[in-house]
Design a protein that fits this description.
Shape: globular
Structural class: alpha/beta
Strand content: 5-15%
CATH superfamily: Phosphoenolpyruvate-binding domains
Radius of gyration: 19 Å
Distance between the termini: 16 Å
Largest sheet: 8 strands, parallel
Number of helices: 11
Strand order of the largest sheet: 1-8-7-6-5-4-3-2
Order of helices and strands: HEHEHHEHEHEHEHEHEHH
CATH topology: TIM Barrel
């Protein structure tokens, strides 16, 4: 499937609510495809942690992230959305180049957030953030689905009004999808959906106060649910528990996994 076909397929998925999980390597991507998911997203956190690096500090390069996304796309044939942090660069022109590179790499979607990578001032100034989305949108329009993301809540700035101000401006600047990880509750989710309508909203699993049934999210107008690093963390929790048992001498602890032959066959089929 060509990049243009992936883009059109990905865009069409946003006509109704769907789940977009985030794998971190080839086998996790293939298992998610096998489960029936129609699109996948990268996770900047999962990539960074898998490489032994700290997320949100520009520790993973654009080249590395693009190669990772291409691996997922090539193995699965599914539309891939890239979680490309702040767009990899200090200027709007840098962000434009990142979007173009993502298109050339075959991605169907790309997310650009208003973070800075600076722990002392993690959220970019409003005008800078909007200018970066506007620059991305000029390249993305009709070619790749652009998600404009505000990270206020996960950066310790629980300001719903400022979040809505930013997301509305991102929508007006040309973002196709809007996203703010972990609003406090469903009232915040609904306020965001209303503010940027009719453009679709992505939600990271659920609001911060707890998991909400998928039907309720659909009724609220959410159109995409992503998982970020949640699947990676779930698998790491399982590994941690097995490691503790194994260190205590329990040789049965690692048993019960997917049979080796099944994984080998899955990867072999994708690589053929």
């Amino acid at each position: 499937m060509s990049q243009a076909e992936c883009y059109e397929r990905f865009r069409a998925l946003h006509d109704q609510l769907f789940i977009m999980p985030n794998p971190w390597d080839g086998t996790s991507a293939l298992l998610l495809k096998q489960a029936g998911f129609q699109a996948l997203g990268t996770s900047s956190a999962a990539i960074a942690f898998a490489l032994g690096r700290v997320d949100g500090t520009h520790a993973v390069s654009r080249k590395e992230h693009l190669a990772h996304a291409q691996l997922l796309a090539g193995l699965t044939g599914l539309p891939i959305n890239g979680d490309f942090e702040d767009g990899y660069g200090e200027t709007p022109e840098d962000v434009s180049r990142t979007v173009e590179a993502a298109i050339q790499a075959g991605l169907a979607g790309i997310g650009i957030e208003d973070t800075s990578g600076d722990a002392g001032n993690p959220i970019r100034d409003y005008d800078d953030a909007v200018a970066r989305i506007a620059a991305a949108a000029k390249v993305a329009k009709g070619r790749i689905l652009l998600t404009g993301r505000c990270d206020n809540f996960i950066q310790g700035r629980p300001d719903l009004d400022d979040t809505i101000r930013r997301l509305t401006a991102f929508a007006e600047a040309g973002a196709d999808v809007l996203y703010a990880p972990y609003p406090a509750d469903m009232s915040g989710v609904k306020a965001i959906v209303r503010a940027v309508a009719p453009k679709p909203v992505n939600l990271l699993i659920s609001p911060a106060d707890g998991i909400v049934p998928l039907a309720e999210l659909a009724a609220a107008g959410v159109r995409r649910v992503s998982l970020g690093s949640a699947l990676y963390m779930k698998v790491m929790a399982g590994l941690r528990d097995v490691a503790v048992r194994l260190a205590a001498g329990d040789l049965e602890a690692p048993s019960g996994g997917i049979p080796f032959g099944q994984v080998k066959a899955l990867v072999a089929a994708a690589a053929a």
